[in-house]
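ARCHIVE CARD
Drawer: 12
Card no.: 0347
Subject: one protein chain, sequence and derived structure
Cross-reference: see card 0346
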Amino acid sequence: MADVSTLNTTAAGIDAISRGLVSGPRGRKPKRVLSRRNIMLYGALTVAALYYLLPLYVMVVTSLKGMPEVRLGNIFAPPMEITFEPWVKAWAQACTGLNCDGLSRGFWNSVRILVPSVVVSIAVASVSGYALANWRFKGAELFFSILIIGAFIPYQVMIYPIVIVLRELGIYGTLTGLVIVHTIFGMPILTLLFRNYFASLPVELFKAARIDGAGFWQIYFRIMLPMSLPIFVVAMILQVTGIWNDFLFGVVFTRPDTYPMTVQLNNIVNSVQGVKEYNVNMAATLLTGAVPLIVYFVSGRLFVRGIAAGAVKG
């Protein structure tokens, strides 16, 4: 009996295989790698990448050349003899006005502006977004509408009133005043991002915590924060990029001894005294843009996740 059962099973398997061979393969037809759609897609992406990478390549190779080689005029050629002297001069010797200590002074000024501005603006915006998303207090919609309006008001029209306010407070021309300005102007868009992200989280978690007796801060620190790493990375990248690359606020609200890095870069590049040292200018530009580039490359994946969750949902 066992042999008959085995033969029947084998025959059934052979029949199934033969039917599959007759009917042909099933499922979706695999896409061709070199289809017309893929060629157009990757071709467009390649052109866009070259568009942005070519100027960066020119900046890097120029910054590694000496001035005699730069004067030859072949900007696309790699350096025949690599030198880091332009980088050293841009960092510690280039003149920015009356000071000839390079970008080093502006770098530390930018760090002193960046760190408190990013920390305070993100901390306040995260709490505000959490409150707007989960705690329906009186006037919440009006407050949120005001923030949205503030996010789209051109900040150029508010510069002069802010100058008067900071002057009356006695902090105009100081790094403290500039930190306050960056913190306030970063609040609307960051609050919007945090509010949308917290609104996208399962509301059952919030309700369960409320039933268990958790209060405002307990829910924020024990439930919301552990789940919010992507949106915090988004907020950090936006603030670091905006504050570090800012020129207008830096030149308006500070003095020469407290100029941020971007203002000093402008003074180096636009200097009209002596020989125009293009290699030093390129090195100074790369040094100035290094910080936001490093921050983005380190946390780029979380940035994409946070944008998808916090800027679309809610």
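Annotation on reverse: The two ends are 66 Å apart (CA to CA). Confidence is low (pLDDT under 50) at residues 310-314.
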